[in-house]
Amino acid sequence: MDEKNKEKLWTPEFLGYGISSGVFYVVQYIMIAALPIVITMSYGGSAFDAGLAMTCFQIGCILCRPFAGELIDGLNKKVMLLASTGLFFLITAAFNYAPSVNYLFGYRFLQGMLFAIGTTAVAAVAVLVLPKHRKGEGVGYFAMFVNIAMVIGPFFGLLVLDAWGTQALFIAVAIIGGVGFYAANRKPLPPQLAAAREVSSKGWSVDRFLERKTLPWALMGLFMSFTYSGILVFVPIMLTAMGVGSMASYFFVIFAAIIVITRPIVGRVYDRYGSAWLIYPGYAVFLAGLCMLSVSESAWSVIASAPVLGLGYGAIAPAFQTLGVEVAPSHRAGAATATYFLSMDIGVGLGSAVLSSVIAHIGFNGMYWLNTMVAVVGFLLYHFVVRRGQLRKV
Asked: Which residue ranges does UniProt annotate as crossing the membrane (predicted)?
């Protein structure tokens, strides 16, 4: 135990990759919150145009995510970090030159591609620089940067847009992108970790781009991201329908704050007792939060579900991600991370599409009951299939 405690977690490399990951997501959450307003108010676009910009981003992200792991594992990781964070900064800065809304569509598509590669790169190398016996704790802290971005992004983006307008928003986002580039590359990755994997002579196959050993946990990530999309996308709309759309910011501040506060405990429990000690109670709490949303009739009852959902999601999500990376060989860390993140991208996109189509028929409460059932199916899949399958391999 004393030896484990001596292993340093907060190295300059790990901190830089965490900040860079946070920057990627701050930019993304700023765009999610502010770009629809920019498109409709500054460019005279429609609500369809605003949705199309998000679709362009998701298409770019999903198209590149499977190849991200192969690129990161097959090329020098130091070069990949430099290229992905640098190009993401340049594309983000390019929003300052957008004569028409069509330029925004193109930029969002390219931003999605680089987001997929960049977030996979920083996540993969962050895991590599973590001490062996503190990976669960470290991945939990790494995910905390994303949770903080969830709070900072929308708040900061809407604040700048309201106070100083579109041009100031795009300048601010470009500066933030530059911070991410600097943070990721300030402390070079050690040569032994940056080295590319030996080129395989097997030619093109699915195994080159996706890590098969990660697939069971990626499937669990898909179920979690599907249910999470119901929270991320529809809680603000639900509160707006209640006439208090501004309270959505309070919901997400509480949701993310609970995740951040509990993160150190979650990481230590994972490393000391194992993932099951997080996943089983985490699912129980998360399902309770979804049930609370399913019966919510007032804004305050929606807000009351935020800490419950944050506590459950904050326990489950990093556990699945850590398991997905740990089952893969170290030289396949990029492919494993890409496999898991691809499932998250698909889950959010699929959840947004499916759940939005049922709201008109069964309302928000009915949609959240359906979302609860999806989460129950995910839990049963974990208990009877995924976990038992992993235990048989041990």
From this structure: 14-39, 45-67, 79-97, 109-130, 142-161, 167-184, 217-241, 247-266, 278-296, 302-320, 340-362, 368-386
Q: What is the pTM of this model?
A: 0.74
Please tell me whether residue 258 adopts helix, strand or coil conformation: helix
Phi, psi dihedral angles at 224 (to 5 degrees): -65, -45
pLDDT tens-place string over residues 82-112? 999 999 999 999 999 999 999 999 999 999 9
Task: Tell me the CA end-to-end span of the chain in Å, nearest whole number.
Answer: 24
Indicate if the pLDDT at residue 230 is higher than 80: yes
DSSP state of 384: I
Is 210-394 a domain of CATH 1.20.1250.20? yes
Residue 312 has phi, psi (to 5 degrees) of -70, -50
d(CA 364, CA 2): 51
Let me know if domain 7-188 sits in CATH 1.20.1250.20: yes
Quick one: how many helices (H) and strands (E) in the chain?
Answer: 15, 0
Two domains, one topology: 7-188 and 210-394 = yes
| SS3 category, 203 | coil
pLDDT recorded at residue 394: 43
For residue 25, give the nearest of 121, 105, 145 by alpha carbon: 145
Q: Which of 219, 213, 221, 190 lies closest to 332 in space, CA to CA?
A: 213
User: For residue 199, is pLDDT > 80?
Assistant: no
Q: Rounded to an integer, what distance in angstroms lies between the CA atom of residue 352 and that of residue 233?
A: 7
